[in-house]
C-alpha cells in the first residue's frame, strides 16, 4: 500500500478536465466528470497505450491507437479491441488538492 500522490490543485481539475499523475511506475488518469472525480490507470488494456492521449467525451475515453473505448466511472471496456476493464483507483480532495494512489 503506497501513500497518496498529489495530482494537482482542485482549481486545476474542473468539470470536463483531466490530469495525469504518477504513483511509482503507474500512470493514473484523473478526470472530473460533472464535479465527480474518478481515477483509472492511464494504460489501455489492449496494448498498454496511454489513454490520456485520447479524447474524453461523455464519461468515456477513446484510445487513439485502435479505438477502444472505456467508461471512466467504472473502468469497463466498452468496445473491441479492448476487453479487460481499467484498474480503478481511489481519489480524495484534501488541503485544496486532488490526491490519488495505486492501491493494488
Ligand atoms: S492500444 Fe488501445 S485500442 Fe489498441
From TrEMBL:
Stored InterPro entries: Rieske_2Fe-2S, Rieske_2Fe-2S_sf
Pfam families reported for this sequence: Rieske (PF00355)
Descriptive protein name: Benzene 1,2-dioxygenase ferredoxin
Keyword Iron: yes
SUPFAM superfamilies: ISP domain
Alphabetic keyword roster: 2Fe-2S, Iron, Iron-sulfur, Metal-binding
Organism ancestry: Bacteria, Pseudomonadati, Pseudomonadota, Gammaproteobacteria, Lysobacterales
Gene field: bedB
Sequence ranges assigned to domain Rieske in this UniProt record: 5-100
Statement: the UniProt record of this protein carries the keyword Disulfide bond: no
